[in-house]
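Ligand: magnesium ion. Inputs:
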Amino acid sequence: PVVALVMAGGTGTRLYPASRSDRPKQFLSLGGVSGDDSLLQQTVSRVGFADEVYVSTGADHAERVRRDVPEAGVLVEPAAKDTGPALVYAAHRIREQVGECVLLCVPSDHLVAGAFESAAETALRGAVETEGLVAFGVEPSRPATGYGYIEPTDTESEWAEIEQFREKPDAETARRFVEQGFYWNAGLFAWTPESLLREARDSPLAPLVEALDESDPERGFRAVEAVSIDYAVMERTDDAYVVPADFEWDDVGAWDAIERVVERDDDGNAVLGDALLLDAEDNVVAADEETHVSTVGVEGLVVAAYDDRVLVVPKDDAQRVREVVAKLRERG
Ligand code: GDD
Ligand code: MG
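Predicted complex:
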């Protein structure tokens, strides 16, 4: 059977203050960009063709997940250690519960449209036939530094062996990769539990795999470092393949993404919620239902107002919201 595994343990830091620790990005609908369903609910519907659907998350959000997507099984991780441990744990648990199967692992906080199911089917077939790890490659549109980059051995095959996988390169390297025709890694993967566990055994995730062999996940999560699957496994394995993602894809990573997913007004402003903009150009303005925002004569800004929080940042620095959240966490 095909089992979909939706990863929903992240925090979505860069969409602060819409995204907060008690309300991470996957639980937001992004103000009706695609109706009222949250990104998580949209994701679970999108993988509805799978025989079974599981959502993996931490204890903090398990209740919320059960309420929002009662049709999915929930896997609760002993600790939040990024996607590396989360995916190894999920593969182990699903193999116990379902037996032999192939997994489609999908982020819970992306916007996807178009021919998703057919690309997924190709990747799942590739995962079974190659017994390797299959990623999805998106045609890059800018030298983004927040993504993984994939160099395919060719662009003709249904699935091409991956020559090189590089997670979050610096700006200079990203520019070179885009020129050289690399893909972005979409963050979705297809593999069998056996394939992933085999590759993870030979990676920084080994302490977790070994503890799971001995049925001691708590010890495994204590012993393993927090690391994403991209650094821990995808950059190191030489048994990986890429399927072109010929569907529309946006990971809505930071506030500047909003202008790619909502229609802009005549002055280039992207607005979520209720706002009055005078002589304002190319801004992203977002607010919750209780809040009205006005701006006069500003250009290229993000203004986001949710709960009792306001964020103002130049659009070009939208990635730096991460730093704000880190500082706020330090303050406690
Ligand atoms: N269950 C679980 N546990 N899920 C997690 C955890 C965890 O500890 N940490 C993150 N996630 C979920 C997030 O909710 C998200 O849906 C997904 O895993 C990916 O995590 P991100 O933190 O959003 O990763 P990223 O955006 O920095 O990078 C990944 O995605 C990019 C594309 O959007 C990488 O795969 C990149 O290579 C890729 O380009
Ligand atoms: Mg992400």
